[in-house]
Amino acid sequence: FRSAKEVFDKSFKNPHHYNLGKTGRFQLNKELGLHTDWQVEILRLNDIVEIIRYLLKSKREKREVKGLEHLSCKRVRRIGELLSEQLHIGLTYLARTIQEGMNMQNPDSITLGSLINARAVRTAVNDFFSRAELSQYLDQTNPLAELTHKRRLSALGPGGLRRIQAKEETRDVHYTHYGRICPIETPEGENIGLITSLATYARINKFGFLETPYRKVVTGKVRQEVVYLDARKEDEFYITGADSIDKEGKFLSSEAIARYRGEIVSVPREKINYIDVSPQQMLSVSTSLIPFLENNDANRALMGSNMQRQAVPLENPEQPFIQTGMEGKVAADSVSGIRAKREGQVILVDANHIRIKTTSSIEEYKLSKFKRSNQKTCLNQRPIVSQGDRVKKGDFIADGAAICQGKLSLGRNILVAFMPWEGYNFEDAILISEKLVKEDIFTSIHIEEFQVEAKELSSGVEKITAQVPDVDKSSLQNLDREGVIKIGTEVESGDILVGKVAPQAEIKPTAKERLLADIFGEKAGKVKNNSLTVPHGIKGKVIMIRVLSQENKDDLPADVKKKVKLYVAIRRKIGVGDKICGRHGNKGIVAKVLPEEDMPYLSDGTPVQVVLNPLGVPSRMNIGQILEMHLGWVAKILNTRMICPAFEGPKANQIRALLKEAHLPESGKTVLYDGRTGRAFDGKVAVGYMYMMRLIQIASEKIQARSTGPYSLITQQPLGGKSRQGGQRFGEMEVWALEGYGAAYTLQEMLTIKSDNPQGRSKMRQQIIKGENLFDTQTPESFKVLVKELQSLGLNLAFWKNEEKLPIKNMQEKEAIEGKPLWGMNNIDRISIRLASPEQMREWSYGEVRKPDTINYRTLKPEKGGLFCEEIFGPSRDCQCSCGKYTGMEHKGVRCENCGVGVISSKVRRERMGHIELASPVAHIWYARSYLPLLLGLKKKELERVICFTGYLVVNPGQTPLRKLQILDEKKYQQYKDLYGEGSFEASTGTEVILSILKGMK
């Protein structure tokens, strides 16, 4: 018992080894009914006794145990707690280093500086903010996205779950989430249910548990007192919804539907303990912005919540006709706009400042102008007050991005019609009016950042200057003296933003050049134009320039002398390929922009602005968009805005009454006329105003076209990606699709001249220029790469035609080699593959690699005899030897007597191979896993032990009881050696012993 007590005391009573924390003590007290002081953060003997008693009682009474998904078993770890843990790690390491330093250093010479090194603490903090999974790039697409990102909850990260471990129960909605975690807003991908959002009214208590507010109910009467309950307390009470009472706070009936321990029950109103403070209590901020939410399917509500965060701020935003009442609250809680700190009178307003005179002072508010967000959207503040206006504390005085008159405004109110139109709105495609383009209704501003660095190179220092060689003067007219473009300049693709020149490496002059230099004098050093230009597809205005330099002691890398950052504002109009959506998960792609006069129009001549597909509504079950459209039409006619909170919107009969009041058809449908012919369409069409947003997936930023361009050095295939002027990848499944369709010639084009056939595409280009149409293909370059890769694996690939072996060197060369004709893949009838002998490998090789080095750090040239050796693999530069003695096509074929490098095209580096002479033979992996075990009668694992020098193979057992080809480990080998004596048997390890046995086989 004494030893057990010592172990318990050491394990649980030492706060350095075990610490419950205040949260652990709180949980233990609540669960076991203890009254232990919260300051006691260790596990006591009495706690163990109570835990055992609780478990026995639970088993005896068959109590229902709370699951792990119950929110009383989960808590929120905030930034302070996570950061303190990282600091604790850093400080623990610091304490250990101080202690070690004190033990190792002379006490007389110890100083504070020699003991304390704060690098460990600094590294711990930096790692937390830069590398931690929960440290994310702030989403600043719009104010709602930023606010939602700050209210996000994650089950992942340090101390949390991993996606692979997450079960369905973990991702599912739990009844304790009500009012604490939104059941709708969550990502659609692999993080579904693991990343969630805090509910609108939820808060986190001091222990990290989520609480939600309720109004107290006493003997059937609702009081104004608001009480916050956590998930554990909530299980003890009967709670009803906010829709159970009328405007005066009285229950609608004697019976009420209530929640109790996850069950829905009907109880007398006197039994009700609490009532919800609002019907929107269970929703997140983003979800609560969806009107008629109760009429939408949950999946579409999820999409609507997520897509609102992707809405790009418009140049001219507009408040929705149909609001939920949360728009003003979101705008107020975001950092986008500016609100008055005190009551006063506006005495000055301009684009950059607002001054307000209060009773005690004059306060100045500085407006943020055209700042770039993390997602390249424009953050710009606009004053909405005038000189002489009176403002109260909290009033909006300046709107920000996606805010209009102090309300969140992510889009515009658009006149829409639900009808098919020539197939252009088939399958979620959308037809829009040219009016949306001309009047900049969906135009947005985006800010691109460009930067250029002047570095110190081995050949000299790069320079930012306006003196750029080989450039027309008109291209330099907008640059200042320093070579940087002026603010306010309109730029487009190809324009120079910053002039930069880089010195070229000096090449040893020829005798002719030296003679000319002696006659005419030394010429200026050669420089190369490395100017920063506007990329393809960009057209905008330079709005800001930042210049950083080491002279000004800016934080720059050691080799960077100067850095220039430029910001270009781009106005992007809506166009074909752009994505627009509503608030109900109704999204689509713009398929056609139709002239305004060709759009369907109302009887009064008003053309609709967007035509949507009616088939997109019933199957998605998001009827809320139809109700919003009808009510939006009413709001437009009556020149008003309506508040329709979630779960409190008007019913169908109320909407009909409002339509009648506005002198509109009660059905919400009307006759539309074809703008092209003037004839009425068959049947009436649902028309109205819907709030629509433009999403950040903008087609003009992603569209890319290519005819010719850069190619991969290894495969000779076109590069991929817009930034590299690449093309669209035609992958394996696409090839299957064309094979299935039978498009043989199209497929042949894709896999040859449009891919990696340099000679074929060069010929095709010439034929296109000449207007000819002769399709000629050769062996693709990828096949040659495959041959080289197989040879590098020690495999001899041979091609045969009529029992004659064709030389690989003659495959598609420009000139026939060894007097034999050229051949391609169409000329062969069979292929053979076998292991290559060492002699065959030496024949393929152009030289032996003797060093593991690659590039010389001083000369920045390949090391001689190294892995990149120019003597073996060919020159790095076209027709130029390594030392520079021979340069140019006139020396082609010459081998330099100084450096040993042949003057030839640098393309030979793709094809040439070198070899390494090994100290001992190795087993080819093909044979090691197949033929060798069969020949030797060994298992694969046993053979691997011999090859890897962890096992001994008995070659000659002698007079000992050992068997030939028996495997011995190191321990047994030494034992038998000691037992039978030195030389009594022969055993060895490694590949050499296998080679000797194979040579002895007949």
Automatic annotation (TrEMBL):
<dbReference type="InterPro" id="IPR015712">
    <property type="entry name" value="DNA-dir_RNA_pol_su2"/>
</dbReference>
<keyword id="KW-0804">Transcription</keyword>
<protein>
    <recommendedName>
        <fullName>DNA-directed RNA polymerase</fullName>
        <ecNumber>2.7.7.6</ecNumber>
    </recommendedName>
</protein>
<dbReference type="InterPro" id="IPR007642">
    <property type="entry name" value="RNA_pol_Rpb2_2"/>
</dbReference>
<dbReference type="InterPro" id="IPR007645">
    <property type="entry name" value="RNA_pol_Rpb2_3"/>
</dbReference>
<dbReference type="InterPro" id="IPR014724">
    <property type="entry name" value="RNA_pol_RPB2_OB-fold"/>
</dbReference>
<dbReference type="InterPro" id="IPR007641">
    <property type="entry name" value="RNA_pol_Rpb2_7"/>
</dbReference>
<dbReference type="InterPro" id="IPR037034">
    <property type="entry name" value="RNA_pol_Rpb2_2_sf"/>
</dbReference>
<dbReference type="GO" id="GO:0003677">
    <property type="term" value="F:DNA binding"/>
</dbReference>
<keyword id="KW-0808">Transferase</keyword>
<dbReference type="InterPro" id="IPR007080">
    <property type="entry name" value="RNA_pol_Rpb1_1"/>
</dbReference>
<dbReference type="Pfam" id="PF00562">
    <property type="entry name" value="RNA_pol_Rpb2_6"/>
</dbReference>
<feature type="domain" description="RNA polymerase Rpb2">
    <location>
        <begin position="136"/>
        <end position="204"/>
    </location>
</feature>
<dbReference type="GO" id="GO:0000428">
    <property type="term" value="C:DNA-directed RNA polymerase complex"/>
</dbReference>
<feature type="domain" description="RNA polymerase Rpb2">
    <location>
        <begin position="726"/>
        <end position="799"/>
    </location>
</feature>
<feature type="domain" description="DNA-directed RNA polymerase beta subunit external 1">
    <location>
        <begin position="214"/>
        <end position="278"/>
    </location>
</feature>
<dbReference type="Pfam" id="PF04565">
    <property type="entry name" value="RNA_pol_Rpb2_3"/>
</dbReference>
<dbReference type="GO" id="GO:0032549">
    <property type="term" value="F:ribonucleoside binding"/>
</dbReference>
<dbReference type="InterPro" id="IPR037033">
    <property type="entry name" value="DNA-dir_RNAP_su2_hyb_sf"/>
</dbReference>
<dbReference type="Pfam" id="PF04997">
    <property type="entry name" value="RNA_pol_Rpb1_1"/>
</dbReference>
<keyword id="KW-0240">DNA-directed RNA polymerase</keyword>
<dbReference type="Pfam" id="PF04560">
    <property type="entry name" value="RNA_pol_Rpb2_7"/>
</dbReference>
<dbReference type="InterPro" id="IPR019462">
    <property type="entry name" value="DNA-dir_RNA_pol_bsu_external_1"/>
</dbReference>
<dbReference type="InterPro" id="IPR044893">
    <property type="entry name" value="RNA_pol_Rpb1_clamp_domain"/>
</dbReference>
<dbReference type="Pfam" id="PF10385">
    <property type="entry name" value="RNA_pol_Rpb2_45"/>
</dbReference>
<feature type="domain" description="RNA polymerase Rpb2">
    <location>
        <begin position="3"/>
        <end position="77"/>
    </location>
</feature>
<dbReference type="InterPro" id="IPR007120">
    <property type="entry name" value="DNA-dir_RNAP_su2_dom"/>
</dbReference>
<feature type="domain" description="DNA-directed RNA polymerase subunit 2 hybrid-binding">
    <location>
        <begin position="340"/>
        <end position="724"/>
    </location>
</feature>
<keyword id="KW-0548">Nucleotidyltransferase</keyword>
<dbReference type="GO" id="GO:0006351">
    <property type="term" value="P:DNA-templated transcription"/>
</dbReference>
<dbReference type="InterPro" id="IPR042107">
    <property type="entry name" value="DNA-dir_RNA_pol_bsu_ext_1_sf"/>
</dbReference>
<dbReference type="GO" id="GO:0003899">
    <property type="term" value="F:DNA-directed RNA polymerase activity"/>
</dbReference>
<dbReference type="Pfam" id="PF04561">
    <property type="entry name" value="RNA_pol_Rpb2_2"/>
</dbReference>
<dbReference type="InterPro" id="IPR007121">
    <property type="entry name" value="RNA_pol_bsu_CS"/>
</dbReference>
<feature type="domain" description="RNA polymerase Rpb1">
    <location>
        <begin position="826"/>
        <end position="978"/>
    </location>
</feature>
